[in-house]
Design a protein that fits this description.
Two copies of one chain form a homodimer. Chain A is mostly helical and about 210 residues long. Helices cover about 65% and strands about 0% of the residues of chain A. The first copy, chain A, has one domain: Tetracycline Repressor, domain 2, CATH 1.10.357.10. The longest helix of chain A is centred in the last third of the chain and has 27 residues, at about 135-160. The first copy, chain A, binds a DNA duplex (30 and 30 nucleotides) through α1.
Amino acid sequence: MRGMSNDDTQFDLPSESGTTETKYARKKVAAIEAAAQAFAEKGFHGATTHDIAAEMGIKQGSLYYYFKSKEQALQEVCEYGFENYVQQMEKICAKAQPFEAKMQMIITSHLTTYRQKNNAMKVHNDQRLYLPKERRQRLKELGTRYRQMLENTLQEGVQADTIRADIDTHFVAYSIIGMCNSWGAYLVRDESLDLFDTIQQCADLVLRGVLN
Amino acid sequence: MRGMSNDDTQFDLPSESGTTETKYARKKVAAIEAAAQAFAEKGFHGATTHDIAAEMGIKQGSLYYYFKSKEQALQEVCEYGFENYVQQMEKICAKAQPFEAKMQMIITSHLTTYRQKNNAMKVHNDQRLYLPKERRQRLKELGTRYRQMLENTLQEGVQADTIRADIDTHFVAYSIIGMCNSWGAYLVRDESLDLFDTIQQCADLVLRGVLN
DNA sequence: GATTTTTTCTATAGGGTTATAGATTATTTT
DNA sequence: AAAATAATCTATAACCCTATAGAAAAAATC
């Protein structure tokens, strides 16, 4: 038996052999991605453990070698989808850049993530509330961290006199996230939508609004 | 037996007696609202026919007097939630009003609907894709009509020289809808959020953006 | 190549779910 | 109040689903 850390996400310490990753770790990622695919398509309750296993080419029962329960699978998918997204935000915010450039990068990062890890991100957004609160802890922390970075960026914009002093940064942060999420969902559903164009339009709308 | 029109939504012709509505029609609405509540809370697949029936105070089997299937219940909830919302939009767009006033009204209508019929609207937004395409026909039509009215309004704004001529009305329409939906979801989740304030902020952001 | 460890499989217990049928109780009509 | 219609109930068939246990196959180690 393997990975019986009993508590949680056990990406075994890098082993000695060639690729630094265990066979297990690699297959575990595949499991997470299979679950992401299934949950994204049918929703958490609509997808079955059989669907996930089939996606991986193994049998339903074997899936439990990788997840202790279906619920844990959902949790891991959500964290997987959200984690490096928040990390990217961290990198963006660390750099010293003028406000407009930063905003552009933030939106780019957000929408690009959707195009890449589309399934896991979608699952995080649409299905995470089906997790019991205990299991959402980490996600909540990540979300808060993300939003705070966004608010800080806006504050910097105010300080630099680039953006209006009378905006409610808290509110605007939520709005940007909401708009990007909704565009993200479109990007996932409609492959033909141009990513770069969408980014431009979003940034333009947020920055300048529609008025003349 | 009643309402065996076999095809669909049968809100019987107004009867003669007092209230113009049959007992059936009244209870059917209650059924739709119960389903909306259940689906909103647990999702389409997560909620059971038992949940819905319990909400109405009847037994699981009795529910099938009102819906031919769980899927049809979802369809009716979605249509119920979306229909009068689109109607309201129609009224707003019919009136001759300056662009900014109209935009304000549109956002008000959108967010107010959420606060009122929160469950059905939420279900429409989050769960409608679990319906097979055939059952989404009407919803799609309604959605298109809505978006078109919004785009028209934006076009009028361009014509009146109130808003920038270089905006992509199609894109902006989607963005507004996306942002409002995401705020709508917050309004449903957090009762303490001030409706009027949210409306103001949304309108302000869309109209003016954040830049100085 | 024998032994140990990892991975997958089969089978199943113990649930839960939808939808239907036919009986039963309420409510209207005549 | 008898007859007809509407609304609800009980019971159940026919599924589907998760999670576990123990056997079996594959891979790695000695």
